[in-house]
Write a structure and sequence with these properties.
Largest sheet: 5 strands, parallel
Helix content: 40-55%
Strand content: 5-15%
Number of strands: 8
Strand order of the largest sheet: 3-6-2-7-8
Structural class: alpha/beta
Order of helices and strands: EEHHEHHHHEEEHEHHEHHHH
């Protein structure tokens, strides 16, 4: 078979999203799958977000209530991964530009290790793809919100690629046990909170999630699981998406963008209110026990409030292409509701009136 340097045969590429809780079995699956796909002449490119996103981003996420994908810092890292993948897909008949930054350097190393991306003799990075062998890009991350997965779907649509999703359903207690045995385990509370928020693929609600498969991960994957997965990959490969978007998809994209903007701004305003409440409580010399309880309940209120706000925006604002929403007004009204709830909690924990600066 001939290897064509600098050319990607995009008609034979499929993007596959792996989603599920941390320690649900995604890494086990991607280690198992290649032995089966090789028999069909398929190539696998495992794109693990953990290998592309720098470690300090995870620390930032833990400290700043990371389960909200609206946080600009964390979201920007995820966007960089997709930008690298986009560059990989569109670098046809041309060397891939070097010096794309730290994210690209990490992406490049991962791709070279898997022999998907290689350097030519003149040291310019170039793509290498065997035309007769379909390539499946497995994006390995939690992808707990549909909006995260929809971005990959849009990328597949942009390049007329196949697209599918695999959701690994695993009992929370099993995920916690597996996570504790890892070299660098996540805090239990991160996984517990993510379990409350994860939204599995829902083909009945989202037409773009039609090609999705749910596998139950406990001890291992059965032969039947693998066969169903191979069938899904084959169906997605044979039915690539078209770049023409209809009104329904454009409206969905607009709703997601609007929701992200509103929730992000509300998140920042709520954080300021919580910080001010803690300063007021400290000035009034609340007990350490009350301060701790207050902080926990306010943070819980903020997380639930933002989650509900996102859902309300998505369901309550049917946006047509070209329409705009007064985001500032929506945020202002929403934050005023949060402020009332915050004041109620303050009164519940206070032993004397709180001084407002």
């Amino acid at each position: 078979m001939d290897t064509v340097s600098g050319e990607i045969d995009r008609s034979g590429i499929c993007l596959c999203v792996l989603c599920g809780l941390p320690a649900a079995g995604k890494s086990t699956l991607v280690r198992t799958l290649p032995s089966y796909t090789r028999k069909k002449g398929w190539r696998i490119f495992i794109l693990s977000y953990d290998e592309i996103i720098p470690e300090e981003a995870y620390e930032l996420r833990k400290e700043n209530d990371a389960l909200m994908d609206t946080q600009s810092s964390w979201k920007s890292y995820r966007q960089e991964v997709l930008q690298c993948l986009d560059a990989f897909l569109q670098s046809q008949n041309a060397p891939v530009c070097a010096n794309r930054g730290e994210a690209w350097a990490r992406f490049e190393r991962v791709a070279q290790d898997q022999q998907v991306l290689k350097a030519s003799d003149d040291s310019l990075r170039q793509m290498s793809h065997i035309k007769s062998e379909p390539l499946f890009v497995l994006l390995d991350d939690n992808f707990y919100y549909p909006s995260m997965r929809y971005e990959v779907y849009q990328l597949a649509k942009k390049h007329s690629l196949g697209f599918c999703q695999i959701y690994l359903r695993c009992p929370l207690n099993v995920c916690l046990t597996r996570n504790r045995m890892r070299g660098c385990p996540l805090p239990d509370e991160v996984i517990v909170e993510m379990a409350k928020r994860i939204e599995p693929p829902n083909p009945l609600k989202n037409t773009w999630e039609q090609k999705s498969l749910t596998l139950t991960s406990t001890i291992d994957f059965s032969q039947q699981d693998i066969e169903l997965l191979i069938q899904l990959l084959g169906a997605a490969l044979e039915n690539p998406l078209t770049p023409i978007q209809d009104n329904t998809e454009q409206k969905e994209a607009d709703r997601q963008s609007c929701a992200s903007s509103i929730v992000h701004q509300a998140d920042q305003a709520c954080r300021r209110l919580v910080s001010q409440a803690m300063r007021d409580a400290k000035e009034c010399k609340w007990t350490a026990s009350n301060m701790k309880s207050l902080a926990a309940e306010l943070n819980q209120l903020k997380t639930k409030f933002l989650e509900d706000l996102r859902k309300q925006v998505l369901q309550g604002y049917p946006i047509c292409p070209g329409e705009t929403i007064n985001v500032e007004l929506v945020v202002s009204r929403a934050v005023s509701v949060f402020d009332q709830e915050k004041n109620y909690i303050m009164r519940k924990y206070s032993t004397e009136p709180v001084k407002h600066l």
